Structure formats: C-alpha cells, structure tokens
Amino acid sequence: MNESSVSVVVCVYTEDRWEDILAAVASVRAQSQPALETLLVVDHNQALLERLTSQYKETDEVRVLANAGPRGLSAGRNTGIAASHGGIIAFLDDDAVAERDWLRHFAEGYADPRVMAVGGRTMPVWASGRRPAWFPEEFDWVVGCTYKGLPEGRVRVRNVLGGNASFRRTAFDAAGGFATGIGRDGDKRPLGCEETELCIRLTRARPDAVLLIDDRAVIHHRVPEVREHFGYFRARTYAEGLSKALVARSVGADKGLESERRYTTRVLPAGVARGLRDALLARPGGAGRAAAIVAGVLTAAGGYVFGSLRARRGGTTFTVVEIERSVEGGTA
Predict the structure, then answer these.
(1) What would the pLDDT profile of 265-307 be if each residue is shown by its tens digit?
(2) Is-contact 148 137, C-beta < 8 A?
(3) Could you give the C-alpha distances from 54 to 25, 95, 147, 172, 332, in angstroms and in order?
(4) Between vectors from CA 242 to CA 238 and to CA 243, what angle results, nearest 5°?
(5) Looking at the whole model, is its pTM more than 0.85?
(6) Phi, psi for 249 (deg, rounded to 5)
(7) Alpha carbon 292 to its chain's center
C-alpha cells in the first residue's frame, strides 16, 4: 500500500440521485492528482447496487460495494474504509462535484506526518439558482456547506466536515470508525455530527494529531429545492441539537461544544447585527436573516436539551466499531 495514495469513498442510497452520482464519480476521475480508486458504497438498495455495478463494470478504478453494516451513512463509510487500498481515504457527498485540484490539495496536507485529517470548502449550488434572501451564510452547514465563521486558508481545526474530508488510514486504526446511531439514516430525520465525534475521539487517541481545513480543496454541493425552505431549516437545526447532545455524551461537553461556544457568542451575534443593519438600509432579506439566526439558535438549543434528556434516560445509543479490513481492502 502506498501511504500517499488516495481512495475516494462516495456513499449512495437512492436512484433519485443517479445523475448526481455519475457527476460525482466523473469529477473524481478528472482529478489533477488521480485517485487510486473510487468506491461507491450502496446503502441497502439492491436496484441501485445492480444498476451501478452494470454502469461501472468495465471501469477498473471504480468499485461498487454494498453497505456491510446497518443502514446509514456511518456504516457505509466504514464499509468503504475497510475495502479501500489507499493510505489516505477521502469522502465526497453523492450530490457534489469536486474541483480538479481537490485531491492534490488534500494530499499536500499529509506531507506533515502529524496530520491525520484534511477537510475542504463546500460551496452551495442552489436549485433555484440563487441563495434565498432570508438564508444566513452563518447557517450554510444546514445544507452541508462551509458556513460563515469558519477560519479561512489552511488552518488547524477541531473537526473536519464529513461530506468533503479525508483521513489518514492510520487515524481509523487509532480511533475506530464512524459511530453508528449518530448520523444520517436514509430519509429519516437529518441528523449529523458523526465526523465531529470521530475527530474528537481521534485527537483523544492521538493527542499529537493535527486536523486541518484547506479551503482550496473545493467541492460544489447541490441544494435541492426542498432544502431552501424554512421548514427544512428548522428540522435540520433541531436535528443538529439532538446530534450535539449525543456528541457531548460521548466526548464530554467541554470538547463536544468547544467550537459551538465561539460560534454562538461571536459569529451569530455579528450575523444578527448585519441582518438588522441591512433591514435598516432596506436591503432584501436583512430582517429575515436576523430572524432565521435567532430561530436557528433556539431550535438547535431545544434539540440539544431534548437530546440530552433522552440520552440520560438511555433512549438513544450509538456504537463505535473497529474497522476490520475486508478481503478486498488494503493492509497496513
């Protein structure tokens, strides 16, 4: 196994994203620094598995696999990790396309042997063609994108964002895989934070580990029309609160909410102030953005309180599994 080679894992679950999946794979195959392989992990959808297997049957560098674990994104990622051969494993959302130098910028970060993870910048592609006037940039994480308030450049961070991220293979040897029971599960409530929990667990297992975001590693992420509405915004912020409660239960509130404290005490108040200023200047959407930020904070806080109570009562569990290399997968 070449320690600098990159395997790309794309987790897929629905034929509704067929064209998006093909575009995602095409963007990986067009990289200036070629991937060693692309692994398409299909989440318990036999029809999609058969269709993709037929689509790529003559493409050696693309492999199609069935999720070997329970339904959900975390188990799909773990399946891809176990089957991969690369020394670095990158993850790309199935409804996103990567810019040509995406993998090259990831790989550059690993020149430092302390670096265990490198994430990138995710740009929204709105179905309507433009950002809704009321939608605050500070909440772009709601639609899986880089949000206003994250540091710019190549900087050290607590955690990378899972839809545009890479890890050194040895990170999973040290910390285990993605926890099941935290993140997304098909079309159920839009939970998240599985990558946050993994990154915190990784830095506990390897205190010398460095995690980076390099905003030159860019992908463009489709935002469907249904996610441009306030109903989805409210559901996603509530789900984030539920997820953060699980993370805090796993790693402690100090680490689990470390970045969120700065975000809520500095970034969001500044966003409200900008929205109100724009409203006073009669600029479109200013009052709506300010109101959305306040609503998002309150909804996420409600989710966190409910999630904490439910976790305390034992109503929610999640599992961290060790990654066992499959027969096809690489060896350390």
Answers:
(1) 888 999 999 999 999 999 999 999 999 999 999 999 999 898 8
(2) yes
(3) 15, 20, 38, 31, 31
(4) 115
(5) yes
(6) -65, -35
(7) 23
